[in-house]
From TrEMBL:
The keyword Transmembrane applies. Residues 1-20 form the signal peptide. This is Acid protease. Keywords: Membrane, Signal, Transmembrane, Transmembrane helix. It comes from Bimuria novae-zelandiae CBS 107.79. SUPFAM superfamilies: Acid proteases (SSF50630).
Length: 478
């Protein structure tokens, strides 16, 4: 018997080790920002994804709980169908399946989203072509990755934004992309950004399917395990600090027993914290209930010029700066909570405005790191299952000038990741400025130095695009 068990486990090991991931497949970078969406006159914030032929373009909100990718039906906002706030400008676009020549309804499809609360009130499914757009420069065209015969959900009724790209544990978009070898594995990274109304910021976000953006975070990265509750972390302290007074730190915890598990989610903006901690927040900062944004975020009676730091179990500290903690309108990203609420605790979108999330669904782990807010370069890098993402090491300017830009960067990538040069490119900040000037392929050192001086952030520079042969599809200049 023992030898049989041994044989079986050896077989399992063997089977696992033969699951080969081709980690030189370039990831797919899909940016998140405000843009024109189908059938709406209002620019909307989200992931640049289209559906159908001809393509109807939408702004999809990434959800870490939903598994299907969905689009709002043309009739979604019609009288009585939906209770979504400001419906006609909040659906991320409107999809008319009858206008797509490739749409085939699938009445027998069984949805992967079975958890009652997060599903939509009424929808139908069908197969169509999904377009994932990569768009670096505002003035340049986008390149696209198509997934044919992809099952989309068309939402007819609901109370939440219907245009969602589902990155849940059974994400159909990651599954299909991996199945057709357009990404190396079911890995994914997200920076949600702050360029939407509720956050009131300007920084745009990005999705990287099958990879991560090495320019979007700083080391160290912190590793966590996925659980049946999805991506959950343990919070061991929360500290309020006044910006101008280093001695002002106040913990919202009574004692260490207050540590709690919180799910990471993009399904709501405000954080949902345990009742006692919420009460302490209210008394400490003199907050009151409010529902300006329809999400029960607390409002301060008088301005507070400070920050809030969440300390996770492993020591990782995430600070919400004063611009996030208390916007001009005095509204905080902390939700009120009733004493007997059984709802999960959430570190939600407001938390993710400061954090880069990297998820490895193959190995059931995920990574968090401090996000780089003012991103200077976009560096999509394949995320091989089981590996730990590493941030691009920003060289100091002297090293740059000595070695020459490209040499330094490629050397860094090869050294750090040890994989083929297939998946990176660099986009300077101030995209518009750069695009207007058009990137010259050969910039002389002197010009480089001059341009460098024009950027506000220290190590910002322009980069030549990688050689054509090294960029399969996504550095495409028009
Ligand atoms: C506060 O939010 C508003 C939108 O409600 C936004 O216009 C403004 O820029 C935000 N202010 C700060 C300091 O973030
Ligand atoms: C891995 O992917 C690269 C890039 O797409 C491709 O050139 C190579 O042939 C693939 N290798 C295998 C073993 O499939
Ligand atoms: C709701 O949507 C359906 C189609 O899904 C449409 O026929 C109807 O006019 C809409 N409005 C109401 C009030 O049902
Ligand atoms: C959205 O609908 C409201 C009424 O519900 C209307 O006043 C407004 O003009 C519409 N906006 C757009 C952009 O269609
Ligand atoms: C997505 O799939 C995961 C894993 O199968 C499941 O736990 C989760 O409930 C699904 N999401 C929804 C909204 O049903
Ligand atoms: C759905 O969510 C709401 C609020 O988020 C909660 O009050 C309700 O109990 C939930 N229902 C189920 C069935 O989980
Ligand atoms: C969707 O976006 C792509 C890429 O920018 C563009 O080529 C296409 O024309 C857009 N479709 C529509 C209907 O605007
Ligand atoms: C699309 O997928 C379905 C099953 O998901 C399959 O039955 C059908 O043959 C596929 N069609 C094409 C054109 O690949
Ligand atoms: C975010 O994207 C929008 C739309 O493309 C653009 O106008 C804006 O400049 C971007 N913001 C930043 C900070 O790059
Ligand atoms: C206050 O908290 C911040 C953030 O955790 C920390 O950097 C700082 O050292 C603390 N100051 C004091 C006096 O504890
Ligand atoms: C808040 O603190 C910052 C940093 O010390 C300071 O620059 C700013 O003027 C303060 N704002 C207010 C309204 O006190």
């Amino acid at each position: 018997m023992a030898s049989l068990a041994f044989y079986l486990s050896a077989t399992v090991l063997f089977a696992q080790s033969t699951v080969a991931f081709n980690c030189s497949i370039a990831p797919i970078y899909v940016d998140i920002h405000k843009r024109a969406v189908h059938d709406s006159t209002v620019f909307q914030y989200g992931s640049f994804i289209g559906v159908g032929i001809p393509a109807q373009n939408h702004s999809l909100w990434p959800s870490l709980s939903q598994n299907q990718t969905s689009f709002g039906a043309r009739t979604f906002c019609d009288d009585g169908n939906s209770t979504l706030r400001d419906c006609n400008i909040s659906t991320g676009g409107f999809f008319s399946s009858q206008d797509s020549t490739t749409f085939v309804e699938n009445e027998n499809y069984e949805t992967l989203d079975t958890a009652g609360n997060s599903t939509f009130d009424k929808s139908y499914f069908g197969r169509d072509t999904l377009h994932l757009y990569t768009h670096y420069f505002e003035t340049d065209g986008a390149s696209q990755t198509n997934v044919e015969n992809y099952t989309v959900e068309v939402v007819e009724e609901g109370s939440t934004k219907p245009a969602v790209v589902g990155i849940g544990a059974s994400s159909s978009v990651l599954r299909d992309l991996a199945a057709i070898n357009k990404i190396c594995a079911k890995t994914y990274s997200l920076y949600i950004g702050q360029g939407f109304d509720r956050a009131g910021g300007a920084v745009n976000g990005s999705n990287v399917f099958g990879g991560y953006d090495a320019g979007r975070f700083v080391d160290p990265v912190h590793k966590y395990s996925m659980t049946s509750a999805g991506m959950s972390v343990r919070v061991k302290d929360i500290i309020i600090s006044e910006t101008n007074d280093a001695k002002s730190n106040v913990s919202l915890f009574e004692n260490s027993d207050d540590a709690f598990d919180a799910q990471i989610t993009t399904d709501q903006y405000p954080l949902s914290l345990p009742y006692e901690i919420t009460q302490k927040f209210i008394s400490q900062l003199d907050a009151e209930e409010d529902n300006t944004w329809g999400d029960n975020s607390l409002k301060l009676r008088k301005p507070f010029n400070g920050s809030m730091t969440m300390v996770l179990d492993d020591g990782f500290e995430v600070t919400l700066p004063s611009s996030v903690l208390m916007n001009a309108s005095n509204i905080t990203p902390i939700q009120s909570r009733s004493k007997d609420s059984k709802a999960p605790f959430y570190l939600s979108t407001a938390f993710l405005t400061q954090v880069y999330l990297m998820a490895d669904f193959e190995k059931q782990s995920f990574f968090l790191a401090t996000a780089v807010q003012k991103n200077n370069m976009v560096m999509p890098t394949p995320f091989c299952p089981g590996s730990t993402p590493t941030a691009y090491q920003r060289p100091n300017q002297n090293a740059f000038l000595k070695q020459g830009l490209i040499g330094a960067v490629i050397g860094g990538i090869l050294g750090a990741v040890g994989i083929g040069i297939c998946a990176y490119c660099f986009v300077a900040s101030c995209r518009r400025k750069v695009a207007e000037r058009r990137i010259e392929r050969r910039i002389q050192e002197s010009q480089k130095a001059a341009k460098m001086a024009q950027f506000e952030v220290e190590e910002v520079m322009e980069f030549d695009p990688p050689p054509k042969s090294a960029t399969p599809f996504f550095w495409r200049k028009t």
